[in-house]
């Protein structure tokens, strides 16, 4: 009853009253997953984004198949500039929903289809980026200087690796996956300690190359190098799933 009252208040624009009802619903039943998601929506509307995120995550903790929370988290991460994590939630929402569900269709469009994609980039932007590589001294990794994970990496190599990783993302956005794989491998040859390059490599190997072993290796490296990763829990679930195949 409290949740329904909260919904009615929300529809009437009475956000503080809706918040009170949703919080009451949770107090009455702390396992009420839907109420956490509803409360998250209200918190966002009231300008409390961090509190909203925690409610969405709590909803999924209680009910991993509650689809609305995936959409809300995807939008939350988009709003905060974390397109990688947003793409993960959109893919999750698209994969769990019915094909006829408008939100499933929206999720599929936002994450670029069943493969791996982010916000569509223009070909002109890619060409400008590629042009910046022409004549650069670091345009090819030097095979005489192989590095292994954990080896110290100087600033020059870190910058070079970052440029290749950014190029890989541009290729991904244009669905040019072979070139993306080549670019991210160059990034890791230059700096095997680059967490984002491992992240992109892991997704490319999983969703493009269908190489679960390589995907797991790169995703594990990403989590090891980025202990505070916001998507840690979900990547750990993906890794376990791939290892159990």
How would you sum up the major sheet?
none
CATH topology value of the largest domain: Serine Threonine Protein Phosphatase 5, Tetratricopeptide repeat
Order of helices and strands: HHHHHHHHHHHHH
Separation of the first and last Cα atoms:
44 Å
Mean pLDDT figure: 79
**The named CATH superfamily of the largest domain:** Tetratricopeptide repeat domain
Strand-residue proportion: under 5%
From the alpha-carbon coordinates, what is the Rg to the nearest angstrom?
21 Å
Number of domains: 2
Helix segment count?
Answer: 13
Task: Name the helicity range.
Answer: 55-70%
Question: Rough shape?
Answer: elongated
The CATH architecture of the largest domain is Alpha Horseshoe
Helix/strand-derived class?
A: mainly alpha
Q: What ranges have pLDDT less than 50 throughout 5 or more consecutive residues? A: 112-125, 134-145
- Count the strands? 0
Report on the structure:
- The protein has helices at residues 2-11, 15-28, 33-45, 49-62, 67-79, 83-96, 102-110, 123-131, 155-173, 177-190, 195-207, 212-225, 232-244.
- The protein has 245 residues and is an all-alpha fold.
- It folds into 2 domains: 2-105, Tetratricopeptide repeat domain (Serine Threonine Protein Phosphatase 5, Tetratricopeptide repeat), CATH 1.25.40; 123-244, Tetratricopeptide repeat domain (Serine Threonine Protein Phosphatase 5, Tetratricopeptide repeat), CATH 1.25.40.
- Mean pLDDT is 79; it is low at 112-125 and 134-145.
């Amino acid at each position: 009853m409290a949740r329904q009252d909260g919904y009615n208040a929300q529809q009437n624009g009475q956000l503080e009253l809706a918040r009170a009802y949703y919080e009451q619903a949770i107090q009455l039943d702390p396992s009420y997953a839907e109420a956490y998601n509803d409360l998250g929506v209200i918190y966002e509307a009231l300008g409390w984004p961090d509190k909203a995120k925690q409610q969405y995550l709590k909803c999924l903790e209680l009910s991993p198949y509650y689809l609305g929370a995936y959409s809300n988290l995807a939008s939350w991460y988009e709003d905060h500039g974390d397109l990688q994590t947003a793409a993960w939630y959109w893919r999750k929402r698209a994969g769990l929903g019915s094909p006829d569900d408008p939100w499933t269709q929206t999720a599929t469009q936002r994450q670029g289809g069943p493969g791996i994609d982010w916000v569509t980039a223009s070909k002109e932007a890619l060409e400008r980026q590629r042009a910046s590589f022409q004549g650069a001294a670091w345009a090819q990794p030097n095979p005489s200087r192989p590095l292994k994970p954990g080896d110290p990496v100087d600033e020059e190599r870190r910058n070079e690796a970052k440029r290749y990783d950014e190029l890989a993302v541009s290729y991904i956005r244009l669905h040019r996956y072979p070139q993306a794989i080549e670019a991210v491998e160059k990034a890791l040859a230059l700096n095997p300690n680059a967490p984002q390059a491992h992240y992109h490599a892991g997704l490319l190997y999983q969703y493009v190359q269908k190489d679960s072993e390589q995907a797991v290796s790169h995703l594990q490296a990403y989590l090891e190098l980025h202990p505070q990763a916001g998507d840690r829990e979900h990547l750990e679930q993906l890794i376990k799933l791939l290892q159990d195949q």
